[in-house]
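Let us begin with a simple case.
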Amino acid sequence: MENNQPSMMKRFMPLIVFVALTVLLGIGLTLNPREVPSPLIGKPAPEFDLPLLLSEGRFTNKDLIGQVTLVNVWASWCFACRQEHETVKYLSRNGVRIIGLNYKDEPDDAKNWLATLGNPYQAVAVDYSGRISIDWGVYGAPETFLIDKQGIIRHKVIGPLSDKEKYDELMSVMNSLEK
């Protein structure tokens, strides 16, 4: 009888593996690949000290304290950044403080892009190497972070803000901060 145990186990092993893989696949299919949770939500913005693109000086994480702020990661080479730019300009015109984080871009290209499309940013910090963006958990451009008055990251949007669902969710979180 004991000899049947290992052979029965061997016989049902493919079925067990198949069922386990089917369950994992089923769980995976219910997840939204665009929703990548950020481990930084609820934590202070990472420390940084970057040069400004359009003026002399520097911009640091300490400059994020005191006002609700959007930090918008963008680049002139980014098609989706161009797609969301009208939405970013709209937010800026309506009093939202937006700081640009220019990501892995050539400074002249970034300046020309803003001169052509308009500059909605109160300041643009330059992350030429992309190292600071790594600390922020940036996967690529565009990405936008909502920072509260204490410098805490409250929300992250991956992809263009021109997507209505993303915009509405961001506005909902932003409005809850202002209450």
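The second case is a distinct protein. As before, the sequence precedes its structure tokens.
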Amino acid sequence: MLLSVNLKTRYPEKKRTKDLRTFGLDERALQDILFQSLDRLFPEDELILLMQSRVWREEPDLMAIDKDGSLYIFELKIGESKSENLLQVLRYGQIFGASQYDDLNKLYKRIPDRT
């Protein structure tokens, strides 16, 4: 299942499909698309993208913070999710959930053009 966001109503709509390969995409391609366009799905004052994962690192695919300081962890999968994926996200919560603003700022500054 994929979601399509209606920008006028701001409600997601389910779109039935097999998986991302239906669109000729893999997980990294979707991650790149969301990294470049997350501000279109969520207003800039609502979510600030902090990081995109690097290859061979124990990091979530995307991580963002909202205006109240709540951390959002995005873990993308090419197809239907499995129960172990929830454990992966919980692990990222353990690793990054206690981060201080200075730690998060370092992640934010890793993105090119944000130094």
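Residues 2-109 form one domain. The two ends are 37 Å apart (CA to CA).
Keep these points in mind for the review questions at the end of the chapter.
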